[in-house]
Amino acid sequence: MTDQRNDDTTHFGFEDVKKEEKVQRVADVFHSVAGKYDLMNDLMSGGVHRLWKRITIEQSGVRTGHTVLDIAGGTGDLTMRFSRLVGPSGKVVLADINDSMLKVGRDKLMDKGVTGNVEFVQANAEALPFPDNSFDVITIAFGLRNVTDKDAALRSMARVLKPGGKVMVLEFSKTDNPLLTKAYDFYSFNILPHMGSAIAGDAESYRYLAESIRMHPDQETLKRMMQEAGLTNCKFQNMTGGIVALHTGIKP
Ligand SMILES: C[S@@+](CC[C@H](N)C(=O)[O-])C[C@H]1O[C@@H](n2cnc3c(N)ncnc32)[C@H](O)[C@@H]1O
């Protein structure tokens, strides 16, 4: 069971598009929102994204001397925390396909004095430009949803992970409480695009956000995709009623 189709189309939110078009349109979304990305995250989630990220950090097992890859790292929230944990003898690579997001991330981390052990790399999660067995921990937070070939991205992460290392996928997922689902749908499709328009001057990108969440594989499907990518001990933990799930897998 994979997320892929046999033809050259895929989904961009609720639309069927050519795969190359999705890559371009995802790029356009993040070029457009980069400057307001952190502010919108706080406003949209009422700050709860910080808690989801804190739980991810706590469960990462990252410690002094580790080498960590934060792919689709964007504005660097996870990288910033990992940088402190790994210390001067460790290394964190913040990788992202989008140079606007990377620039906002690099500027933010520099402002906060977090750079000594951080490298910034422009890279596509589907074809990571790192040697096999390089990282102790790899995170992808709110990124996998935007990747065209998710199976290729998971395989690429498994390849560059060290044996015994951990992949962590933090992503929007599926709620199973009908009342919460109803409220969440109303919020996503009626309020979010207006917030996007008022604050980031871009309703469309936030409509894409809501649609892309609905199109993303559910918890069990993503778990199977991770297993098929060669990871073991794959499991997930729901947060905020399944609005978000943290999947983890280990490289055997
Ligand atoms: C919603 S942001 C998440 C940023 C950050 N991880 C966080 O949690 O705040 C999604 C990021 O995924 C990046 N992205 C999308 N497709 C990608 C790909 N194929 N490879 C690497 N990064 C990608 C985007 O450029 C964007 O920075």
What does this structure look like?
By secondary structure, the protein is of the alpha/beta class. It has a single domain (9-176, 206-250), classed as Vaccinia Virus protein VP39 (Rossmann fold). It has helices spanning 19-33, 37-45, 48-60, 77-86, 99-111, 150-160, 178-200, 203-215, 219-228, and strands at 9-12, 15-18, 67-71, 91-96, 118-122, 135-141, 161-172, 232-239, 244-250. The strands form two sheets. It has a seven-stranded mixed beta sheet with strand order 5-4-3-6-7-9-8, sandwiched between helices. It has a two-stranded antiparallel sheet with strand order 1-2. Strand 4 (91-96), helix 5 (99-111) and strand 5 (118-122) form a beta-alpha-beta unit. The longest helix is centred in the last third of the chain and has 23 residues, at 178-200. The radius of gyration is 17 Å and the shape is globular. The structure holds S-adenosylmethionine.
Give the structure's gist in a few sentences.
The protein is of the alpha/beta class.
